[in-house]
Automatic annotation (TrEMBL):
Entries under InterPro entries matching the protein: Glyas_Bleomycin-R_OHBP_Dase, Glyas_Fos-R_dOase_dom, GlyoxalaseI/FosfomycinResist, VOC_core
Limits of the VOC domain: 8-135
Name the UniProt record assigns to this protein: VOC domain-containing protein
Source organism phylogeny: Eukaryota, Viridiplantae, Streptophyta, Embryophyta, Tracheophyta
Pfam families in alphabetical order: Glyoxalase (PF00903)
Amino acid sequence: MARHLSPAFAYTIFYVKDVAKSVAFYSDAFGYNVRRLDDSRRWGELESGQTTIAFTPVHQRETDERTGAVRTPAAAERERGPVEVCFDFPDVDAAYKRAVEKGAVPVSAPEVKEWGQKVGYVRDIDGIVVRLGSHS
């Protein structure tokens, strides 16, 4: 019987206000190496193992396909988007401190959760929620 191979998860793309600033922020705040920032500043990538973290301008997501008009997200969507990014760190306290020192907005300081994982939350420069957690 032939075995079905699952597809590789290749990219997570963040839609941001300023690609170059977001690439620099994630590199500084979370320690990722920059793989690529194109000359147009409309695409950037960070090295993150098997899955690439990529950035592109927010208006590309919000452009109406028929008219080309830029749509503004509703206020409720700006409160908390439909996606949360999670990064695992061996030292969550140090990762949280570094992220905040580099411009992340503190949401909740790291604490051990009932399931045993240490978790803290910040927001990036575009308001995206980033969870910093331990491996277990």
